[in-house]
Specification:
Blueprint lengths: L11 H9 L22 E3 L5 E2 L3 E9 L7 E8 L13 E7 L5 E4 L5 E2 L22 E10 L2 E9 L14 E8 L5 E3 L5 E2 L2 H4 L9 E11 L2 E10 L3 E9 L10 E4 L13 E5 L2 E6 L20 E6 L5 E7 L8 E11 L2 E13 L5 E13 L3
Antiparallel strand pairs: 1-23, 2-23, 3-4, 4-5, 5-6, 6-7, 8-9, 9-10, 10-11, 10-12, 13-14, 14-15, 15-16, 17-18, 18-19, 19-20, 21-22, 22-23
């Protein structure tokens, strides 16, 4: 969405608008400007493209459905063809893919059809924009949990420009929810799972303002819904917050902010993803790495890189370090995790998108979806 210290890649169209107008690894206390690189020797990186050929798509959330012929499911979002998704409401939309082996994927193409030829013109979104002031332009950043045979999704939604004042691009952002029996046909919740209070929606000044709830990471954890998200902090840029819901997923006002505002869970932590492995939490995001010295104005997302943090409770975190992009990718962003067992070994997969163009012919869009993996050892 917004570059520099804003949310960068959310809402591809809004970014275009802005441009035009591990257990056992060293963890350090976080100062946000001295985050190191981590030891990447524990990661397997094949550079294999899983989805490609699209205009601008990213944020691949993957789940496993044991016993299903296509046991791996993915939800991702953006633009399949061109700028936006012509013929569908709004701009950004959420799409769906499936796989038998985590390597070869096919994308839902409507009426029971699936495309394995990477022909994005055939792809059909499963969630598009609504007609709400907080959901008529962008939907994306899907985070999906399967509980008791049902799919639950938290996702970002945004109103079009000039709906509010003193917000970036004067857009109202929120986190919406949806449920589904098959992962394809979704019913949105009547109200957002999380949205700014009225006073923040209509501030009288941009000084000290905090809000813009977006980019959720949803878990069913400790017998309740836990929702990590990013938001705008008046002095620290995009930070991570946490909300919890002890009741029904779609209960109005059910998600209560536990920590955010001027007291973030993690500072400068855009596009957060959280996964729990055993009793420990791992978060990945794509903050700015100060050592990447690209011109912020000319190349606004080149300085960001995937970074990892660890926590014992999901509230207090320590930084592990950055993971720099492969040598054939200008940048890698918007990380998503997936834990599974392959050939008797347990793995943490990290899915991400690669930036399309660098300094010579700069292009902020994403052109491929890939993953890397690290073995989870007792």
């Amino acid at each position: 969405m917004f570059t520099s210290l804003r949310r960068n890649t959310h809402m591809g169209a809004a970014l275009a608008l802005f441009l035009l107008s591990a257990c056992g690894r060293l963890a350090i206390a976080d100062g946000s400007i001295d985050r190191p690189d981590q030891d990447i020797s524990k990661w397997e990186r094949t550079k294999e493209n899983l989805l490609w050929g699209f205009s601008n798509m990213y944020q691949p959330c993957v789940l496993e459905i044991p016993g299903d012929e296509h046991r791996y499911r993915m939800w991702f979002f953006g633009w399949a063809v061109g700028i936006g998704n012509k013929g569908y409401p709004g701009c950004d939309a959420i799409f769906h893919a499936r796989s038998k082996d985590l390597r070869k994927w096919e994308v839902y193409s409507g009426d029971g059809q699936w495309d394995s030829s990477m022909t994005p013109g055939r792809w059909v979104p499963v969630i598009t924009a609504d007609n709400k002031p907080y959901d008529d332009w962008h939907v994306g950043d899907p985070s999906v949990v399967r509980k008791d045979g049902r799919f639950y999704m938290a996702f970002s939604a945004t109103g079009s420009t000039d709906k509010v004042k003193f917000h970036p691009n004067n857009m109202l952002l929120c986190i919406r929810g949806a449920t589904s029996d098959d992962g394809i046909h979704w019913t949105k919740t009547e109200q957002p799972l999380l949205i700014e209070p009225p006073a923040a929606q209509t501030p009288t000044t941009d000084k000290g303002w905090t809000g813009d709830f977006h980019r959720p990471s949803l878990l069913w954890d400790q017998g309740k819904w836990r929702l990590w998200f990013d938001y705008w902090h008046p002095t620290r840029g995009i930070c991570m917050g946490l909300a919890e819901n002890t009741g029904l997923f779609d209960a109005p006002g059910g998600f209560k902010v536990l920590r955010a505002g001027l007291d973030p869970v993690l500072v400068e932590w855009p596009n957060p993803e959280v996964v729990k492995i055993g009793n420990r939490y791992y978060s990945f995001a794509d903050p700015i790495d100060p050592r990447r010295k690209f011109d912020h104005i000319k190349y606004p997302i080149r300085n960001r890189a995937i970074c990892e943090a660890v926590s014992d409770d999901g509230l207090d975190w320590k930084i592990v370090g950055f993971i720099q992009p492969e040598d054939d990718a200008y940048a890698t962003h918007v990380p998503q995790t997936f834990v599974t067992e392959v050939d008797g070994r347990k793995w943490l997969y990290l899915f991400y998108a690669t930036q399309r163009g660098g300094e010579t012919q700069y292009d902020y869009r994403y052109d491929r979806i890939r993953n890397m993996r690290r073995e989870i050892k007792p």
